[in-house]
């Protein structure tokens, strides 16, 4: 998952059409993150295969499918709208809830990276490494920064926008450039790389099942591209230019990930790779080699700024999406409370409480690495539930609403949709299954406990929205809700849905909400 991980990106306030280059850069900045590179550096040259596989079966399908859904169903609601149009509000609520809860689970892992970065601002690398492995130091930083970010988010969009404005450039683009340039300079200067450089190393050894376990998390590296699909209507000649921009941004994203991962693999021996420390250690080793030791603490601070500034923004994004769904009548009035700045304070506080409880896992499991890996995998699993629903909805809507106007449509007719959407669905399903398998490269304590915790948490978070949905009441719908009715509630679209009274379709049931009028 990207550390820029932009959620619920607001439409650009501009009348000027976006060019190919602008859209490509927007997507690269939205997706690229550096914190997960050490996980893939474990695989050496074979990481190239995994990056390309995930790009073909996930990154490109997500981008193109989301563009069609965002332009075809541009009413408020996002993923809730898209899945609801296909399968009704019950599964739509599950998709929206997955988006919100996976971000909540993701926060401790992102902030762990920030805490580790802060640990490396000292002059002694050995002492820095020891501090970065201290569970209580990590826990204290995660809790302090997240609650601070929450209170900043209370102040509204303008406040947290000012805090996060330059975070992506300072904390991602500049450090990525430095990492790649120094890593390949180290190799080209004649130093012996820590990995074998031969073509036979590119294709993984599929007889060793462990090779695909950690690689499943690579799908989350590419997550977030769907958030910029909302801007497709602002692109000049979107039918031609948007796919080109997607291909360019996909290429740029893959190059940064591949080259950055290889740069780490050149310098850090595979046996010494640590998911939370190796990026900083690689920087330190490269700076020592280049005689630029003074840049080590500077880069560590820059990486921390990138994560911290991003978190301030991300704290508010998913909660705003959930607030829209709540006001539409799918969550109790308590969830709909907002302050003078229009921020969903109760949702933000609940989110902060959940983040705090998850962060406490850092002092329960045997190592920071173990918790980092477990929460990262849980994030992948929950996010992939949402993506599976999104791909399924896109495939279904091509048949249930074939005449719906779509300013951008995946080329190739229904066959093209089945190829692109089908590839995304199958790729997401494979990653979903592999995410439950404990990696042999990392000490996670008892493998049974590791898998058991992942399964239990996944079931809990998937069942919870259904339980909430079952007990919903008509009084939950806010008087000022501007959530437009689904197409099938207006009597058009899928005949199987529109033939029923509004509110009874797709499992709404007898206790369903009253029909929603157009705003």
Automatic annotation (TrEMBL):
It is a multi-pass membrane protein. It is found in: Cell membrane. Pfam families: AA_permease_2. Residues 499-519 are annotated as: Disordered. The chain crosses the membrane at residues 18-37, 49-70, 91-116, 136-154, 166-189, 209-230, 242-268, 294-326, 347-368, 374-397, 418-437, 449-471. InterPro entries: AA/rel_permease1, APC_superfamily, Glu/GABA_antiporter_put. Keywords: Cell membrane, Membrane, Transmembrane, Transmembrane helix, Transport. Its main location: membrane. This is Amino acid permease. NCBIfam families: put_Glu_GABA_T. The keyword Transmembrane helix applies.
